[in-house]
Amino acid sequence: MSRTDANPSGRLPDAFTTPGTASFVDFLSSYAPELLPGNRALPAGSWAAELSAPHGTTIVALVYEGGVVMAGDRRATMGSMIASRSIEKVFPADEYSAVGIAGTAGLAVELVRLFQLELEHYEKIEGSLLSLDGKANRLATIIRSQLGLALQGLAVVPLFGGYDLDRATGRIFSYDVTGGRYEEHDHHAVGSGSVFARGSLKKRWRPGLDEVGAVAVAVEALMDAADDDSATGGPDAERAIYPVVATVGAGGYRRVPDGDLAAATDGVLAARRAARGGDPR
User: Fold this and answer.
1) Kind and range of the H or E run holding 172
2) I want to staple 76 with a disulfide (CB 3.0 to 4.6 A). Which of 63, 84, 237, 249 is the partner?
3) DSSP states of 37-92 as a string?
């Protein structure tokens, strides 16, 4: 089925009114495959290293008693330059899940929008929410379809997390560029500052964290990453730019207000000053 079969009367083509798959990606693959990011024609060879495209950096996620916290710094880089100080890298996938992006920023945002449509389409067709495992699998399929772009240097590596309504707990999933899906336990980080963020998470995370404590751990992990990774931006109180932090629990997706993040940042800095005997360095 192609778009050339549109009804001359102006009515929608039959593809839009014929019962079919609950997958929006599968529908688009059959109706207009050229609209999918992974099907776009690119010049042969590896040229992305010379392309000036902003890249997103560090995303962290951790579970707490009642859900999952996901947080992303606000910096996007373009080579050695700061392309943006206030990019958003954490988005709601649906009511009970969140996705964070690292990699080529423009393609990553497009992937998130496609994933959001995929979940919304499934809910409308089936009349129910897809399970958290099902959502994680659908995201893996979308990533796999963009392998050609990744091989040319335009890679997107998301981090997915949500509240499992069946298990009543938060869960986290990571991916590689081939679409490999891996469930992470307790916490995880992706992006250029991930090695430093993971070290911080290992030290600060503990079983039984409540939501407030988990948010503080996520903010501190991003601050630790920003200390050692130039592509990761820490909280900027002067410009009132704080990480995008979201919690997903039984009540659904919630973005943490900047006021709460400012308080969490101040708490981390105060604890560090106290540990150094008041030394501000």
Assistant:
1) strand 169-175
2) 84
3) GGGS---SS--GGGS---EE--EEEEEETTEEEEEE---EEETTEEEESS---EEE
Tens of pLDDT, residues 199-219: 999 999 999 999 999 999 999
Tokens of 55: 């890249």
- Read off the tokens for 34: 């050229």
Q: Which of 172, 110, 169 is nearest to 135 (CA)?
A: 172
Element (H, E) at 199: helix 194-204
Distance CA 251, CA 261 (A): 20
Cβ atoms within 10 Å of 83's Cβ, excluding its own: 16
CATH number for 112: 3.60.20.10
How does residue 49 score in pLDDT terms, banded at 50, 70 and 90?
A: very low
Q: Residue for token digits 């911080």?
A: 200
Q: Are 231 and 192 in contact (CB under 8 A)?
A: yes
- For residue 60, being part of any structural domain is answered with yes
Report residue 163's pLDDT band, with 50, 70 and 90 as the boundaries.
very high
Residue 57 appears among annotated catalytic residues: yes
Q: Which domain holds residue 120?
A: 52-275
In a domain, 214, yes or no: yes
What 3-state DSSP class applies to 278?
coil
The residue from 17, 21, 57, 104 that is catalytic is: 57
Enter the pTM of the model. Answer: 0.81
